């Protein structure tokens, strides 16, 4: 199972913001779209950061509510790990586990081309295990 197969099923739309947006407005986007992280892109849709709800919680704890007026760029993670459509679910699990994050933007032609969350990975893995179990049962019964 590859990233391409996941994206073919769930779609390639990604909620993005620009680096100059305030944390307060980015927070509203997270809430509006019911998501846990937002990809930060430049004017040409190139990935330049990722802002997770955890980044907002941490910066609020460290600096208090006035931090919400700061730009997303001051809090986002700039060194973004990305995947492409050829990565396998197992590779994604390894990257997420090693990096301790739950989101992997998909890069296509140097631009944002989708996003995979840990929820997508877990769902795909469960489906894969269930399929394999059915195949083994069918094999034993035959
Ligand atoms: P998450 O678990 O994805 O909500 O994010 C936890 C932390 O990892 C936050 O500081 C994020 O900014 C950061 N983060 C999330 N996704 C990535 C990624 N793909 N590459 C690098 N850092 C990330």
Briefly note the structural class of the backbone: alpha+beta
Question: Sheet bearing the most strands, described?
Answer: 3 strands, mixed
**Helical content band:** 40-55%
Q: Strand arrangement, largest sheet?
A: 1-2-3
Mean pLDDT over the full residue set: 96
Low-pLDDT windows of residues: none
User: What molecules are bound to this protein?
Assistant: adenosine monophosphate
Oligomer state equals: single chain
> In percent terms, what proportion of residues is strand?
15-25%
According to DSSP, the number of beta strands is 5
Radius of gyration: 18 Å
Distance separating the two termini:
26 Å
Shape: elongated
Number of helices: 5
Helix and strand run? HEHEEHHEEH
Task: Describe the overall structure.
By secondary structure, the chain is an alpha+beta fold. It has five helices and five strands. It has helices at 3-10, 23-33, 53-63, 89-99, 118-141; strands at residues 16-17, 37-41, 47-52, 103-108, 111-117. Strands 1-2-3 form a three-stranded mixed sheet. A two-stranded antiparallel sheet has the order 4-5. A hairpin with a 5-residue loop joins β2 (37-41) and β3 (47-52). α4 packs across α5 (118-141). Adenosine monophosphate binds at residues 36-37, 50, 52, 54-55, 77, 80-81, 99, 101-104. Adenosine monophosphate binds next to β3, α3 and β4.
């Amino acid at each position: 199972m590859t990233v391409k197969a996941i994206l073919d099923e769930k779609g390639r739309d990604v909620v993005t913001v620009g680096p100059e947006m305030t944390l307060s407005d980015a927070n509203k986007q997270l809430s509006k779209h019911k998501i846990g992280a937002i990809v930060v892109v430049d004017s040409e849709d190139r990935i330049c950061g990722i802002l997770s709800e955890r980044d907002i919680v941490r910066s609020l704890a460290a600096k208090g509510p006035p931090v919400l007026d700061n730009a997303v760029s001051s809090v986002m993670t700039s060194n973004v790990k990305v995947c492409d459509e050829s990565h396998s679910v197992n590779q994604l699990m390894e990257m997420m586990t090693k990096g301790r994050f739950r989101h992997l933007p998909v890069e296509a032609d140097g631009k944002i081309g989708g996003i995979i969350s840990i929820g997508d990975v877990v769902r795909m893995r469960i489906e894969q295990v269930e399929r394999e179990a059915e195949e083994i049962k069918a094999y034993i019964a035959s």
